[in-house]
Design goal:
The structure holds 2 protein chains of 2 kinds. Chain A is mainly beta. Chain A is 12% helix and 36% strand. Chain A contains 4 helices and 14 strands. In chain A, strand 10 and strand 11 form a beta hairpin. By secondary structure, chain B is mainly beta. Helix content of chain B is 7%, strand content 44%. In chain B, the strands form 3 sheets. In chain B, strands 1-2-4-3-14 form a 5-stranded mixed β-barrel. The radius of gyration of chain B is 20 Å and the shape is globular. The chains are: A mainly beta, B mainly beta. Chains A and B meet through strand 13 of A and helix 1 and strand 7 of B.
């Protein structure tokens, strides 16, 4: 469920997932680049009969957060719900950057409206198989709303109606009036690994690396992307980044 | 027989097609959608007892992604559905394949260019409906009697005379009426990755979910992956796949 600009939004499950970027074989667990990504199209009566290609597209993501986990399943315990007063002073806080992008098909091609903010808070509430229940609030004024008495007495409710005690619920966020609030399920879906060119099997190497870093099991689907052009070696300035393995988990198999 | 905007269209002998798609267990949201395809030829070009005149104007009507949760495929028998915007808005969602499930009826009338003197010839006729009633009658094997009444609107750019935008009140008589037989002939079942025997798993789920005991001839469509050289794709065994059964014997 997304609340943003008094509009009904439909979650696009094809593109909603938790993603991870492993930039090199020497990457340590605390150097991984995490992102949780949601995508929506407007729904409701005013958009009835309009196909998805002609509806606006809204993407909401939190990128660069640092959960510090050694097992992907430990994400379910990661929470940035209660912030410290100096959170806003960091260029890249531990909870990452929230990115909101809105594409409108009626405007110029590829025109987008974009907001990046660190004035947000989010958490992983629980895990069910590969799916994590994620709650995110992007705030108009983060410093003034976190009165501890309100936060500690409110209740949150999962999409299936399960009460989540001692945390703020949707009514709380309506009263606070954040710019954006969502609570959705997102699968642990895609890990992109940069692998050396001289490995025997890029896919096996990438899979083993991710298993070592995060105890991931066998991926559902694996792709090797080779950006190295043997015919034009002079054009391959970034050879170290030109061989990527994309490992898909949790039923995800699309780019 | 089909009547569409005061033109009568006769049905081919073969029943129209009726199919279902069952999502894999990892899908969030409804896992079962139905689709229906219907076809007719302009009656004026189909003299009784003789071959139809060629080229023949044709009409295609299609309902895709109709979400209806049934515990048994036979439960379509004697079932009435009134699809309207309220019904759709309560159920619309986007699947993991990025498809909008909105139960929209869409159609196309094809008028060949051969006779320019006819007012409709050479004009495409794309239309749709978000407002239609369906009645499924008695069942014979896997074939159902089906009647449909719809209130349609032309799609932008269509050659059909522009009408009022799509209405919320059913003030006019329906401009699309179909009386046909539909045959459940295609069952798509998505199967999660690493399933040891996708066909057996698809059969099991069809029985468990819809009481389909003999779903017919299977074929497996694997997810595709990009080749390492970027020049094309190849199927990926053990990835997510779709098992399609044709001509079920139920």
């Amino acid at each position: 469920m997304l609340r943003f600009r008094d509009q009904t939004w439909l979650l696009d499950r094809r593109s909603t997932r938790i993603e991870l970027l492993v930039k090199s074989a020497q990457t340590l667990p605390d150097e991984l680049f995490w992102e949780v990504h949601f995508e929506y199209h407007p729904g409701g009566a005013e958009w009835l009969g309009v196909d998805l290609l002609h509806r606006p597209r809204l993407t909401v993501s939190v990128a660069g957060f640092d959960p510090g986990v050694n097992d992907w399943r430990e994400l379910e315990h990661v929470s940035y719900w209660h912030r410290s007063p100096d959170d806003g002073l960091c260029l890249m806080p531990q909870r990452g950057v929230a990115e909101i992008r809105l594409w409108s098909p009626d405007e110029l091609p590829h025109r987008q409206h974009q907001t990046d903010t660190t004035n947000h808070t989010f958490r992983f509430i629980r895990r069910e198989g590969p799916f994590f229940l994620v709650e995110l609030a992007v705030l108009a004024d983060g410093t003034s709303i976190f009165r501890s008495d309100e936060v500690e007495t409110a209740q949150a409710v999962a999409p299936d109606g399960t009460p989540l005690e001692l945390e703020p619920d949707e009514a709380f966020w309506r009263r606070i009036n954040p710019q954006l609030y969502l609570i959705e399920e997102a699968p642990f879906g895609l890990v992109s690994v940069c692998v050396p060119h001289n490995v025997k099997s890029p896919a096996a190497f990438g899979e083993a690396l991710v298993r070592r870093l995060l105890k991931c099991g066998r991926p559902d689907h694996c792709e090797v992307w080779n950006f190295w052009d043997r015919d034009k070696p002079e054009a391959n300035t970034g050879s170290a980044d030109s061989l990527w393995v994309k490992l898909h988990y949790g039923g995800d198999w699309r780019d | 027989m089909i009547t569409f905007q005061n033109t009568r269209w006769v049905k081919p002998r073969r029943p129209d097609r009726f199919s279902l798609t069952l999502a894999d267990g990892q899908e969030r949201g409804p896992d079962l959608v139905w689709s229906l395809e219907c076809k007719g030829f302009a009656e004026a070009f189909c003299p009784p007892g003789q071959p139809r005149l060629v080229p023949t104007p044709s009409l295609f009507v299609e309902i895709t992604n109709l979400p209806l949760d049934l515990a048994d495929w036979r439960a379509w028998e004697n079932r009435d559905l009134r699809i309207n915007p309220d019904w759709i808005l309560q159920r619309e969602f986007i699947t993991t394949d990025g498809q909008l499930v909105d139960a929209q009826l869409s159609g196309q009338s094809l008028w060949p260019d051969a006779r320019a003197d006819h007012p409709h010839f050479g004009k495409p006729g794309d239309f749709r409906s978000l407002d239609y009633d369906m009645h499924f009658g008695s069942r014979d094997g896997r074939t159902f009697v089906c009647e449909l009444e719809g209130w349609t609107e032309p799609l932008p750019g269509s050659g059909i005379t522009q009408r009022e935008p799509w209405r919320r009140q059913r003030t006019d008589p329906p401009d699309l009426c179909i009386a046909t037989q539909v045959e459940l002939d295609c069952l798509h079942v998505q199967v999660a990755a690493h399933t040891e025997d996708p066909i057996a798993e698809a059969r099991r789920r069809l029985w468990q979910r819809l009481r389909v005991s003999d779903p017919g001839e299977p074929s497996v469509f694997w997810a595709q992956r990009l080749l390492a050289d970027g020049q094309g794709h190849e199927p990926v065994p053990n990835s997510r796949c779709t098992v399609t059964f044709l001509h079920p014997r139920t």
